[in-house]
Design brief:
alpha/beta, binds coenzyme A, Peroxisomal Thiolase, Chain A, domain 1, about 325 residues
């Protein structure tokens, strides 16, 4: 079996900042309530001209440039998204075209906010099997396009963004990935979902105008799920890697709610500072939150590749899905 390493990370977020004070103008809420319950102060919201393809391609190009590879060197593009430009073709195919990655195969992964971990696991498996050498993993979501901006229970949470990683085959002894754990539980579909856009979408004209296509989220139920899913995934991935929480230099959790992150730090008895957190500035960017947080941590020097930090990613989301990955970078 071959090993895999990450050559580079990248990210792209829209320029437009929407603060909690901006949301106070849309519905009854307050900056204080949102910060206290979620840790979010502001989020980036896509402009009309931004799409999952344009933002995803920007993050991918950013990672590709840093990797030193050319677009033609990429063998496979995996895009994790729940908010792609079309039902089909896949967002990854359209990004392939934008990059000029003419030698690649491309497909999308639908695992909502756990999508980046699912994508990374898939990329690693293709590389380990020897089928592909250079794999580009992209995670992009424009949750704002499916947010009801009159619903204070959901509109405060989400933001838009994209992240990417370029993986390359290497010798087994240089393998960066120590373990993966991914899981799903399909009975949670009504807890977090977007109704009326799949094949169940009504064909009668009156239904099309009457039925909303906005995110429905049972916040309390998702919260209860998340505080169990995060430790479950981390415990399983750490055990597979024959490691304990104290061995990890930095945890990069899905950025959904600061209280969920705090609860995980408490559970594993590690200082919360070991959990990389940028939720205050971006909110929940769904699949993109982990690679955005990682790329920022590299840029500001928190994570230094020279030190070969031991990292743990952990995510959860609609499906319900959850998962974790332990790696060295
Ligand atoms: C969404 C979330 C912040 C809501 O916080 P909460 O403490 O569960 O709040 P509740 O929905 O129970 O509502 C409590 C009260 O606050 C009110 N409220 C809800 N949103 C509000 C807002 N934005 N501003 C002010 N008040 C608000 C409710 O109306 C309710 O008032 P009531 O008791 O008079 O009816 C929280 O449930 C959460 O973060 N859940 C996890 C979501 C998540 O991680 N999603 C992503 C998954 S990938």
């Amino acid at each position: 079996m071959k090993g895999a390493r990450v050559l580079a990370w990248g990210r792209a977020v829209p320029d437009q900042v929407v603060t909690n004070h901006d949301l106070e103008k849309l519905f009854e809420t307050s900056d204080e309530w949102i910060v206290q319950r979620t840790g979010i102060k502001e989020r980036r919201i896509a402009k009309p001209e931004d799409t999952a393809v344009s933002l995803g391609a920007k993050a991918a190009q950013n990672a590709l440039t840093k990797s030193g590879l050319k677009a033609e060197d990429i063998d496979l593009i995996i895009c994790a998204t729940a908010t792609g430009d079309y039902l089909f073709p896949a967002t990854s195919c359209l990004i392939q075209d934008k990059l000029g990655a003419i030698n690649a195969a491309s497909f999308d992964i639908s695992a909502a906010c756990t999508g980046f971990i699912y994508g990374l696991n898939t990329a690693y498996t293709y590389i380990a099997s020897g089928q592909f050498k250079n794999v580009l993993v992209i995670a992009v979501d424009l949750m704002s396009r499916f947010t009801d901006w009159g619903d204070r229970r959901t509109a405060i949470i989400f933001g838009d963004g994209a992240g990417a990683a370029v993986l390359q085959a290497c010798a087994p002894e240089e393998n960066a990935f120590k373990s993966f754990y991914i899981k799903s539980r399909g009975d949670g579909d009504c807890t977090l979902y977007v109704p009326n856009v799949g094949n169940q979408y009504p064909v009668k004209a009156e239904d099309i105008t009457a039925k909303p296509t906005m995110v429905y989220m049972d916040g309390q139920a998702v919260y209860q799920f998340a505080v169990k899913a995060v430790p479950d995934a981390l415990e399983k991935a750490l055990a597979k890697a024959s490691m304990v929480a104290a061995d990890i230099d930095y945890f990069i959790p899905h950025q959904a709610n600061y209280r969920i992150i705090e609860s995980a730090a408490k559970r594993f008895k590690v200082p919360v500072e070991k959990f990389i957190c940028n939720i205050d500035r971006y909110g929940n960017t769904s699949a993109a939150s982990i690679p955005i947080a990682l790329d920022e941590a590299l840029e500001n020097g928190t994570i230094d590749p020279k030190q070969k930090h031991k990292l743990a990613f952990v995510g959860f989301g609609a499906g319900l899905t959850w998962g974790a990955c332990v790696l060295e970078f």
